[in-house]
Amino acid sequence: LSMMEWIEPPKRERKANYAVDAYFREALRVSEPKVPKAPRPPKQPNIQDFQFFPPRLFELLEKEILYYRKTIGYKVPRNPDLPNAAQVQKEEQKKIDDSMPLTPEETEEKEKLLTQGFTNWNKRDFNQFIKANEKYGRDDIDNIAREVEGKSPEEVIEYSAVFWERCNELQDIERIMAQIERGEARIQRRISIKKALDAKIARYKAPFHQLRIQYGTNKGKNYTEEEDRFLICMLHKMGFDKENVYEELRQCVRNAPQFRFDWFIKSRTAM
């Protein structure tokens, strides 16, 4: 990061989508764990927020739930943790008391909307997608598509487009975005190190002999300059961003004749 100017990204704000938010907040009871879950109709569809159904579906489901509570005579309990508990209780109860059943047209619309989300994406697919974004960065869609098992590249591309457009509807979006951004910062750091390594090696005709390291006051007591020079040059030669590069580097150290009797460096692990 020291090689480039750091531009602070703007603060992320969650777009409020009340139909979706209210449905999942109540279903998961994210913010109010002490209050028991209110009853829901027995045959409610199993919907996950990462399946990105149309927001209108949640309005219809909410209407269905409220009317069901009205039919069983449900009374909203008061939540002592809320500052205006009585007012909230009154408003929630009024919603139930004023609720109406779904019309035949709305029922038909609901069934149609239930087919318009990513119904074939489960939690495992979603987690693989998030981990792939963390590993490769959000723009490397080809590698991301390869990481999600059982999904074609076209399916992943379509899902990715909707995910980045509507990700603020997810209940856990802060944690998910922090995870992806951590991965992207690691990728940027690797790119910076690779550039620095290329620039350093390019200064010398025979870097294995000529390369000089300016330690300043940071010189550790364990590695010698000869060892450090070998590690830097060999890392560049093998490719810094290659997978298992440190395991291979360890093997090169063990085979190098100049370190035949150097117990310290030969006993180092890949880590």
UniProtKB/TrEMBL annotation:
Disordered: annotated span: 80-106
Record's keyword terms, sorted: Chromatin regulator, Hydrolase, Nucleus
Any Gene Ontology biological process: nucleosome organization
Gene Ontology cellular component annotations, sorted alphabetically: chromatin; nucleus
Entry's family note: Belongs to the SNF2/RAD54 helicase family. ISWI subfamily.
PANTHER family: CHROMODOMAIN-HELICASE-DNA-BINDING PROTEIN 3-RELATED-RELATED (PTHR45623), SWI_SNF RELATED, MATRIX ASSOCIATED, ACTIN DEPENDENT REGULATOR OF CHROMATIN, SUBFAMILY A, MEMBER 1 (PTHR45623:SF55)
Protein name: SMCA1 protein
